[in-house]
């Protein structure tokens, strides 16, 4: 029945997705620009190098010294990203822990006199913190809501979403996370830390924020989307490393979950960035040990040390551990489906009513969460403290909000504790630490764990999607560790072995739920080992992760993929759809091709840009015999820059002189790059006089003379793999060529440096033709075209 329910949910989600407008259907006016319901635009990034005249002139001016400088600056930026993300994590953790510490200390002191007064204070503090968070998001940084991981995954997949990587988003993410997590909502700060690291990396890559006058010219080195993509990847890894104190897990998270392109050079820089974060966090923790951090104590930076727990496991324990994996896959898939339903309803009904409704909703969720976390422990009967063990550092009882087990809450006797308050009326980090703890058999009753599981699971589902920064790692660990500990209790009672620890099963439950919801395997496995400091449990964690992922995949996709689809982020997954095998490249070309002549009138450019939203245009020229030739691809962003600058306008409708050096290039490649997450220049922002409209522009020096092309009968599967693996934005579809001018093999691509000169020799068994001067190739006229056929495919993205 559950399978049928989730299958129906999958079909509903597909229907939801089909209603979202895309670039391949509907109004041609919106071709290449996916419009979300909130009005923001989703636009493809340009990872391909445009090898036009401006690019080659810039390359000719750069020597080997610049290449060394370029590499050094990349490593320096990796250092800055690590330091910046580490400091941001320190600030967030210190703030959250101190707010939570003050809240619980004040509440506990008040409830010694009156539980009613303590409840009112507790609710008001949570309400103020959540209100501050949702106000920041709704009025200052709307893009900072949620975890941000689906948006960053989309960016690294080649999709730019307006506002995701801006400076105000970074500020909103940091302070919004402090309010939402400190306010006790059923969410975490780990997802927002990934987004924070990505924002820091993006801002460094473009030299800061010009809007808020926080930019520096000496930082403005990396202008291409390709370089920024690598920096953002470093920022994502740094965010995970800072959130979990798991540098290796951060590297693997970036590799497995968020990035779509990976290189060995990038691996080194990502690893270096994560190592820097680990150093910064460890330094901060050492400073806090001296009592300089207020209520920070042992919380904040997650590490739930269970190295002193279960030493070994027996063969008969593998069955209940496998059951934990199955439970994690089922509950994780159900969580994804429920959050998809609720997010869809919020998006299309509730949040359309304005910011005031978003604020009321977040405050209402905060009120419900506070009532449940404070009220349910009051209904639970206290338990007597266990006999003290001289070898144990555990103390019973302890006040709420303090590091340790056995919280005293609404207990009539001094040596009693409330097991439900130990996990409910506590910070999430300390609650997880209590659930993972060893040598605490029978600390929690099955009734309390089941009550907490049902209520917290419901709260996590309802809270997900509110207008506050929200991560799902910590709620997932809370949910999983609860049912894992439940299974551990039954195993202890069944096998009657003193060596079995309930905390071990809690850890496996946490891993299984995250695997069943997020569908990560390798990175999640390493993260769980790093945060628990217990390598002996690695095979068991691998087992439950494989089982939970397999079970979850039988019902729906991972949490981030589902949310990205709902938000209208057109991700290109690693594998093409099965039905693409029976389609060709020509079948996918549904748009009418709009092209420009080589020398085009300014008025014609303006008219075409206003009449459609294509982001790429073939440029057509003619030979002396009248043959039509395609000489390249002109991006829309380049046209807008040329129209805005006006320096390349000419009176003559004839092409400019093609000889080298006959015409200076007044633009650098960096001028054509749009700032990250910004709308860039639009045709409405450009003002031209009537005289300007009568001028002409020669597009040849600015177009991309060598775009990628595929024959029209190539299978769509091969086209998909080529498009995704190269990170393309446009791909020409052409008829089958009539002749072949050469054949490149592996040996043709092996370049050997000459010791006597700066030239290179191509090691090839084929017959070499005479090398033509590269500058002549770049500045030749249209009789040496890119293509000798007309484009038959669509070029919008």
From TrEMBL:
Residues annotated as domain CBS: 703-759
One Pfam annotation reads CBS
GO CC terms on record? Answer: chloride channel complex
| Keyword terms | CBS domain, Chloride, Chloride channel, Ion channel, Ion transport, Membrane, Repeat, Transmembrane, Transmembrane helix, Transport, Voltage-gated channel
Q: What is its main location?
A: membrane
Q: Which family does it belong to?
A: Belongs to the chloride channel (TC 2.A.49) family.
Q: Indicate what this protein is called per its UniProt record.
A: Chloride channel protein
Organism, per UniProt? Carya illinoinensis
